[in-house]
Every structure is written in C-alpha cells, then in structure tokens.
Amino acid sequence: SELIKPYLGSKYKLTEVPKSLIFYMSKHSGPVNEIQWCPVWEQSHMLLSASMDKTVKVWDAVDTGCCLKTYSCHSCAVRAARWSSCGRRILSGGFDSTLHLTDVETGKQIFSSKTEFRISALKFHPTESNIFLCGGFSPEVKAWDIRTSKVFRVYKAAVQQTLDILFLPEGREFLTSTDSVSRDSADRTIIAWDFQSAAKISNQIFHVRLT
Prior knowledge:
Blueprint lengths: L31 E6 L8 E6 L4 E5 L6 E5 L6 E6 L5 E6 L3 E6 L5 E6 L4 E6 L6 E6 L3 E6 L4 E7 L7 E4 L5 E5 L3 E2 L2 E2 L3 E5 L5 E4 L8
Antiparallel strand pairs: 1-2, 2-3, 3-4, 5-6, 6-7, 7-8, 9-10, 10-11, 11-12, 13-14, 14-17, 15-16, 17-18
C-alpha cells in the first residue's frame, strides 16, 4: 500500500502515540471484543474483528478502511475469533456456546460444534494447523481437532473461567489466565500447561487482580 510504504523498514528510535487518525471503522453496532491481522503476508492488509453485535467482520485496514465481509453465524455475542494459518478460514466462538469454522470467501461453515460453556478464548496451535484450544466460562480448556470435529484432550483447573490463552513457541507449552478472585486477591491467575500431557507446569498465585 502506498499509504504505509513510507513506514516499512524504518528503524524507530522511540515509540510514540500516533498523531493522526488514519481510519475510523464503525460498521459494528456493539463493542469489539477482539481484532487480529491476517497472518498471511499477501493478505496482511486484512483485519478480523469480533463483536458483541453477534457478527465477525473482515476489513481492508490499510488502503480504504472499509468492511469487506460480514459473517453472522452466531446467535449471541462473539467473544473470540482467529484467522487460520492459511488465511482462508476464520474460527469463532461466543456466548451462544458454539464454535464455527467459516470459509472466508463463501461464508459457509466448514465445521460447527456446540460446547457446554460460553466461549471467551480461542487459539490455534502454532505448528499444527488443524488443532486449536477453546476456553471460556468453565474450569476446563479443551483441545479440538478440526479433522475429526472432536475434543481430544481436556485441561482441568480449579478456576471460574479462562480469559485468554497463549501458546509458547513450538507449541509444547501454553499459558491460560483467569480472574478467580478470593479475599480480594487473584488466585491461580496464570497457569502454565504441558500441551501433550495436560499437566500443570506452574500454578502461580499473584496477590493482584490480573486480567
């Protein structure tokens, strides 16, 4: 894009707050819960957003700022949405307790499933493109395989809900965060897991409220 070409490859001496607004993208009618740039280099101008208005949108966030596509497969607020590594699919989950894997071009669902809890966090495995983790308003985080449309591993912790999930490089371990609060302190706020064995590597206790 000619708009951002001057900024590519420059070596910033310090980080500053942007001085001008480039785009104001306002097609959502509710709060936006998550955004993510497309991971494919040739499509890296596209931005994914998930909203409380029950929709997932794809934007041209570099050249025009316009909404390219809207997906309305959920019946309640969409809390989490992620690009697949190939950039041709979008995984989404929300407060309707459903998972959808949607084809970006056609808008059709490649994979759909119902869970036992409202979904608040989704993450694809960094090296296994058919595997993802799903967490939400439940003490469990589940690992899914798209090829079989089934859960193949469950990670159990004595927490109220999972707020976010982060894979460490190579995908052998991952972190989950929660807001389990007891006596004005956050208990087991961040947990490190072994992906293969589902064992807790670390069960930290922080006496501050971390979200």
